[in-house]
Design goal:
The complex is a heterodimer of chains A (256) and B (406).
Chain A: H1 2-15, E1 16-24, E2 36-39, E3 43-49, E4 55-57, H2 59-80, E5 83-86, H3 98-120, E6 135-136, H4 139-148, E7 152-163, H5 165-176, E8 191-200, E9 205-216, H6 229-240, H7 247-254
Helix pairs in contact in A: 2-6
Chain B: H1 5-21, H2 46-63, H3 72-85, E1 94-98, E2 105-107, E3 112-116, H4 117-122, H5 126-141, H6 144-173, H7 178-213, H8 220-238, H9 256-270, H10 281-288, H11 292-300, H12 305-316, H13 322-335, H14 342-353, H15 361-373, H16 377-390, H17 397-405
Parallel strand pairs in B: 1-3
Antiparallel strand pairs in B: 2-3
The chains are: A alpha/beta (256), B mainly alpha (406).
């Protein structure tokens, strides 16, 4: 019995985790001072994890979280001194065709998926080794920068989910089973997934990319909650606040 | 407690068998299919609201897609069509036409439908198209996507508890329950598909009724299925394969044969004596006239000669014309099998096409090339001259002139 309790304690301690992994263009220097940042319409989905482990989207939670994330983002950027416009809709930029924004969003979706595949999912490309982040949105992004005068565009995606009562009950049963030797102490299923992608509108290149994952293997234990003010601020902080410069920039800084 | 593992497995197996085959697939009556929503319907329940919020984003993407055919006349025509067969929610539904050469259409839970251009190509008249649109409308009117989601959710919920419970009970009794759990999982999947087939049958039954209520010949729906079966068979035969016959178990849709049979009976049932029903073929031809060449072109370029030939022949049941003869030739030219004598068959197609006043300029061009190949220079020259006369701005005009001179 003591052995079971110890094993359980061990898995509980290991189960919760928050991790971020960022990549940057080798020449990337985090924007500072008087820069103009355009935040593309954030893509937010919040849902509830059913007993069976499916994520059921919740309209009210999604709306709340979107509003809280936008507020947290404004506060964070105000502290850094940037000049920021957050696009709440595709037509939020006066004089810019919403179709142009839509096209850029779709292009970024394709490029971002490629970054996720080749930088995060293990399908590493030999041609991109030791090159930091080497992806671009090309002329379309440069054209947007020229027409609007913005220096950077930030693309954001955030998902959060919470275990339903049934899921928690299932988890309780799984832990209780440990007593008789059938142990399922970490059925998991809920948690956060988010990414941010910074595009330099002068060159069109994706200069910085960060992925955040936060979740616990034990249904019912939360590692964050973007439906609350603190939770939204925490996600923005985890995702955006520790931008590291690119490799070449770091090397020059460290030279005597 | 002392269960033998075999006894446990046997019991599990028969349980699964009961879910899969125990319920006979009775025909769903069109008269039972009442709409579950009225005009201006908005999501009520929490799960439904979440779903429709996501669907708003999906519709935003689809409506801005560059795959859409945005011809205003054609769009208006499709809008009117769904307005006729859409039942109480007719005014709320939207329809998008995507340029994809496949036999398909889909309805989304917020009332917008996507119709593939390949569907328009295959329909012989407006009633056939209206039948498919009515079927899709029925998915919306009967809240099928939501009901399907709830069914999946309920079954996976039950499965999770059963699996966990079986593990815990097995652990307590000292039995390994892995095999049993796998069987239960198969049972869950089978019953999910079963539910989906029921919903498709519901949509068929209601579709027939919507069709007849708006004055279309309700037999059109079973004709459509007849055509689909014929096309799948011929396509498979040309590829020396058999059409997928494993429809019944692992498929979301009922088998085309059983659907067709049910649709025929239902169509007879919904017809009212004394009322006249029409297929509206002329109206359909007018609406499609502008894009039909594109639709045929997309189809023959799929390089699926069996399907393409079937489609051309099906449309030709209402009478051959220059366009159909030309694409008949194209099917063989693109397959280009020497053993089957495809070049000669293509040449025959072009030669037949130019006998019709509506032959496209390309029919004259290819007719000329085929004549040239068989050494009939003078006749080829005449055909090329006709081509240049019909299409003076053709991108290959200079090349054709050179062929005439040389």
């Amino acid at each position: 019995m003591r052995r079971v309790a110890l094993a359980l304690l061990g898995s509980v301690a290991l189960a919760g985790c928050v991790q971020t992994r960022q990549y940057a263009d080798v020449e990337f220097a985090p924007p500072q001072g008087d820069y103009k940042l355009l935040v593309m319409r954030p893509d937010v989905t919040v849902g509830s994890v059913t007993t069976g482990g499916l994520v059921e989207p919740r309209a009210d939670w999604t709306e709340t979280s979107r509003a809280k994330l936008l507020a947290a983002l404004r506060a964070q950027q105000a502290a850094r001194g940037g000049n920021v416009l957050i696009m709440e809709k595709r037509n939020s930029l006066p004089g810019i065709d919403p179709e142009m924004i839509a096209e850029l969003e779709r292009l970024h979706y394709a490029v971002g998926s490629s970054i996720a595949l080749h930088k995060y999912s293990g399908a590493y490309l030999p041609t991109k080794r030791r090159k930091g982040l080497d992806w671009t949105l090309g002329e379309d992004a440069v054209a947007l920068g020229r027409r609007t005068g913005y220096d950077y565009a930030l693309f954001l995606h955030a998902e959060d989910s919470f275990a339903s009562t049934g899921r928690v009950a299932l988890q309780v049963l799984g832990i209780a089973g440990c007593v008789v030797g059938f142990c399922a102490p970490n059925i998991g299923g809920a948690g956060q997934f988010a990414y941010a992608s910074l595009v330099d509108l002068k060159t069109g290149e994706v200069v910085w990319f960060n992925v955040l994952q936060a979740g616990s293997q034990i249904a019912g234990i939360k590692m964050g909650d973007i439906r609350t003010d603190e939770g939204a601020a925490q996600m923005v902080d985890r995702l955006l606040d520790r931008m590291k410069p690119g490799r070449n920039v770091q090397r020059r800084e460290h030279q005597p | 407690m002392n269960w033998s593992r075999r006894a446990v497995l046997g019991a599990g197996g028969s349980l699964v068998a009961a879910t899969a085959t125990g319920v006979a697939e009775a025909r769903i009556m069109p008269k039972d299919m009442v709409p579950l929503i009225g005009p201006g319907y908005r999501a009520v329940d929490q799960d439904e609201k979440g779903m429709s919020q996501q669907m708003e984003r999906v519709e935003e993407e689809i409506s801005g897609s560059n795959l859409l055919i945005k011809d205003p006349q054609l769009t208006a025509y499709l809008g009117d069509l769904i307005g006729r067969v859409g039942g109480p929610a007719a005014k709320d539904m939207r329809i998008y036409l995507a340029r994809i050469p496949e036999f398909n259409a889909a309805m989304f839970p917020t009332g917008f439908a996507v119709v593939f251009s390949g569907l328009l190509l295959r329909m012989r008249n407006e009633a056939q198209l209206a039948g498919v649109v009515a079927h899709e409308s029925a998915h919306f009117l009967r809240k099928h996507q939501l009901r399907q989601w709830r069914d999946v959710r309920r079954k996976t919920d039950i499965f999770s508890f059963l699996a966990m419970g079986a593990g815990v009970a097995g652990g307590a009794a000292g039995i390994y329950a892995g095999d049993l759990v796998q069987l239960a999982q198969l049972g869950t999947i089978l019953s999910l598909l079963k539910y989906n087939r029921t919903l498709e049958a519901e949509a068929d039954a209601m579709g027939v009724r919507l069709l007849a209520d708006s004055g279309y010949d309700p037999m059109a729906m079973s004709e459509t299925w007849d055509q689909l079966i014929g096309e799948l068979d011929l396509s498979a035969k040309y590829r020396r394969k058999r059409r997928d016959r494993d429809f019944s178990l692992f498929s979301t849709h009922p088998s085309p044969e059983s659907r067709m049979a049910d649709l025929k009976i239902s169509a007879e049932e919904v017809k009212q004596p004394g009322k006249s029903y029409d297929a509206y073929r002329a109206r359909y031809l007018t609406a499609l006239a502008k894009i039909r060449p594109t639709l045929l072109d997309d189809q023959v370029k799929l390089n699926d000669p069996g399907a393409s030939q079937y489609v051309v022949n099906t449309l030709a049941k209402d009478g051959w014309n220059g366009l159909l003869r030309f694409y008949e030739g194209e099917v063989w030219r693109l397959r280009n099998s020497q053993k089957m004598g495809d070049e000669a068959r293509a040449a025959q197609g072009y030669a037949a096409a130019i006998l019709y006043a509506d032959a496209p300029p390309d029919a004259w061009r290819w007719h000329g090339i085929m004549l040239l190949k068989s050494g009939k220079r003078a006749e080829a020259r005449a055909a090329f001259a006709r081509y240049l006369q019909l299409a003076p701005g053709a991108p290959d005009a200079a090349l054709v002139r050179q062929m005439m001179a040389g």
